[in-house]
Amino acid sequence: MTVELTVTGMTCPGCEDVVEQALEMANGVESADADRYEDTAVVEANGDVDPTVLADRVVLAGYTADV
Description:
- This protein has two helices and four strands.
- The longest helix is centred in the first third of the chain and has 12 residues, at 13-24.
- Strands 2-3-1-4 form a four-stranded antiparallel beta sheet, with helices on one face.
- Helix content is 33%, strand content 34%.
- A hairpin with a 4-residue loop joins strand 2 and strand 3 (40-45).
- The radius of gyration is 10 Å and the shape is globular.
- The two termini are 14 Å apart.
C-alpha cells in the first residue's frame, strides 16, 4: 500500500530525515521518502495503514501534514 501525504514546513535535508524517521516508526510502514521541494512524503506499507495516524506522526515531529 502506498500513501502520499502533503507535508509543509520542511526546509532542509535534516527536515526530510526527521519526517521519514517519524513515519517509519509507525506500525506497518516499510519505508518513507520525504521531499521538501514537492512538500510530499510517500509511505510504503505492508498492509493497510491509517493515513490519519501517519499525518499525526508528522505533526508530532513538528511539521504540518494533510492526507
